[in-house]
Amino acid sequence: MRYVLSVLVDNEPGVLSRVAGLFSGRGFNIESLNVAPTNEPGVSHMTVTTSGDSQIIEQIIKQLRKLVTVIKVVDFQELAAVEREMMLIKVQADDSRRGEVLRIADIFRCKVVDVSLVDLTLEATGDHEKIGAVINLLNRFGIKELARTGTMAMKRSMQRE
Amino acid sequence: MEYTGAAILMECLKDEGVEVIFGYPGGAVIELFDEMSRHGDALKHFLVRHEQGAVHAADGYARASGKPGVSILTSGPGATNAVTGIATAYSDSIPLVVITGQVATQLIGNDAFQEVDIVGITRPCTKHNYLVKDVKRLAEVVRQAFHLARSGRPGPVLIDLPKDVILAKTPFVKPGEVRMRSYNPNYKPNLVQLRRAAELLLRAERPLLLTGGGVIGSGASGIVTETAIKLNMPVVSTLMGLGGFPGTHRLWYGMLGMHGAYTANRAVTEADVLLAVGTRFADRVTGKLSVFAKQARIIHIDIDPTSIRKNVNVDVPVVADCRESALGLADLLAAGTVDENVAAARIEWLQRLDRYKEKHPLSYTQDGEIKPQRVIELLDRLTREKHEVVVTTDVGQHQMWAAQFFKFTRPRSFLSSGGLGTMGFGLPAAAGAQIARPNDLVICIAGDGSIQMNIQELASVVAAGLPVKVVILNNRFLGLVRQWQELFMKRNYVCTDLEGCEPDFVKLAEAYGATGLRVDDDDALEEALKTMLETPGPVLADVRVRREENVYPIIPAGKSLAEMIV
Fold first, then answer.
1. CB-based contacts of A10: which residues, under 8 Å, 6+ apart?
2. Is some CB atom of chain A closer than 8 A to the CB atom of B185?
């Protein structure tokens, strides 16, 4: 089962290593990890995507909370949340293929951020599944390069009853 | 007035109530030692012969006194030598503050002489650690470090101090109360859970109290003992919990686990309500998890939320301080009543356990050779009336025999590396314990293998004039591994037979300036132990025991508590 955890941390040197070390040292999986400062000075926001059964996830959350530099951990399993990833993808697209690639880009509301005679670079944002779908569809044209962020997540203000 | 980092550190240490530092000097911390010497008796120093010994000594001091142990060590190898000691304390939740020197900040990362990333190395085996880059933050960091070390689930905290920070000057401002929004251990138990626990306990026909190291660490021993006696509830304990409940009491049924007493392991298997206090249900305690305490509803009290439901599923979790929880629970239990039928069933339960104990006591046979178990029994008998005793151990067969055959009646009387299982812990820990409790009798029970892992600390003990008694149960084997080889590897004694290649321990003791004595005759054993106890100053007794004696019961790794080999 895939879980998304939002972790608020003190932004001190080594905090990333503390979190990453916790996962590797205890044999937990990290599928993706996204870190950046928040608007509050000295505080960073990490979004960790992980997997495991409910007992493992419970341990992960408790172990994260136990780290002295961790301020808050939110588990999005029980909450309605907005999830986004972003991807830059360079696809082979000469004159004969460019139109088709652009049509797919359009369907997924991707932006064209770079173009050459032989390829196109697209910027795509969306949840985990959407990004996966874009990759699947573009695969047959030939993907030259791909970079994507981990998941970022935020609790929805209106929670379902 | 401006203070150097070194001076600020010493002021802060005194402020935290530190009286003694366990350390070893070196280039990176030379100014710290210089500054320390200016504080005279207010900051005493115990000089070890190896940094691992310093941390174990600080650890022994902490275990024996309940106060954080403090160690100052140099950078690089000084720091890496400390790692085993730090990991030992981390496994057993012992409060330590370890201060290491570091190369100057501008050199960090340049592979400078005696540079090592000790903060990186110790991240997974400290409760928290700091690299102080600004002398203005030093006082606050020291305050936080002590707060973290002793609060919540205690543990070691490391402070890495670069040379330039030690030398830098700044006005010294005493730090205020620690306020950390990311760290707030919960001491107060949840009343709803406590009520559920009390209900279960009042209705239990086969209740069992399991005490762990948390009972000792939190000072819950008194109230937990009282509660067990009031409820007429049998008690078993983990290795770390020994002494938390008096081992001489009729309700005491021994240590459970891999080398636990038959009765203790049966009791856990057959109990209908298990009240576990201050334990993390380690694998050496539970045996095969899928069948552990299968008949029991489990109440688990521990201050560390990660301990709960990590290994064992529990019915009533109480995440709080053991002492506060036990006090709250005692009130609720006092207000409740026990049904007549339940009370009758409990008497039957105790009788059942007594039958087990009668049928399968911890025992050994006597056959003319010195039996290690008898050495421990004699030590117990010879010291119980006369002394407050602290026993430290290394790790191996001798440790298990000490745990099984010495009757620990007070908390903080059995100091042993339970979690990490560190050979070489006993002697330096005994030094620390003796410093913490100068008037008590400190005995280090060791094996002939493990004593050699930190034998150099005999020099520190002699130099400081500490009257530590060391008893080596000498079987010329790495005994516990040999036992496994005998039972599980068809007696293929690979690398465990030390016959003929060990030092003469008596001469060794004498070379260090301690008294050495040897016993190899069972008839002379009691007299020899008496002589050892009566001889002033440090004494090392080399007791030549039966070579292939085994620790029983034993539960083979991966088997359930019911599958003991007795």
1. A42, A43, A44, A69, A70, A71, B182
2. no
Place of tokens 């020899």: B528
pTM for the complete prediction?
A: 0.95
**What integer is the mean pLDDT of B462-489?**
97
Query: Does residue B87 sit in the same domain as residue B128?
Result: yes
Sign of CA dihedral B518, B523, B529, B531: negative
Q: With an 8 Å Cβ cutoff, is B188 touching chain A? A: no
Which chain B residue has the Cα nearest residue A73? B182
Q: Kind and range of the H or E element at A60?
A: helix A54-66
B507-516 as b/e: b if 16+ CB within 10 A: ebbeebebbb
Residue B59 and residue B163 in one domain? yes
Contact B101/B29 with Cβ under 8 angstroms?
Answer: yes
Give the whole-angstrom CA distance, residue A58 versus residue B530. Answer: 54
- Is residue B533 pLDDT above 90, yes or no? yes
Q: Sign (positive/negative) of CA torsion B407, B411, B414, B418?
A: positive
Expressed as residue numbers, the domain containing B282 is: 191-359
B162 and B206 within one domain: no
* Mean residue pLDDT across chain B: 96
The CA distance from A151 to B183, in Å, is: 27
Residues B301, B332 share a domain: yes
pLDDT given at position A77: 80
Whichever domain contains B267, its CATH number is: 3.40.50.1220
| Contact between residue A138 and residue A89 where contact means Cβ atoms under 8 Å apart | yes
Mean pLDDT of B214-225: 97
Are B279 and B241 spatial neighbours (Cβ–Cβ below 8 Å)? yes
Cβ proximity of A148 and A131 under 8 Å: yes
Select the residue from A66, A69, A71, A75 to test the B interface by mutation, using most B Cβ atoms within 10 A. Answer: A66
Place of tokens 């907005």: A82
Average pLDDT value for residue range B498-511: 96
Domains by residue range for chain A, with CATH: 2-75 (3.30.70.260), 81-155 (3.30.70.1150)
Q: How confident is the model at residue B562 (pLDDT cuts 50, 70, 90)?
A: confident
* B549 falls within a domain: no
Across the interface, whether the CB atoms of A59 and B128 are under 8 A apart is answered no
**Same domain assignment for residues B167 and B45:** yes
Task: Give the gap in angstroms from C-alpha B256 to the nearest C-alpha of chain A.
Answer: 26
Beta-sheet strand order (sheet of B441-447) = B414-415, B389-393, B441-447, B469-474, B539-544, B515-519
CA distance B123 to chain A (A): 7
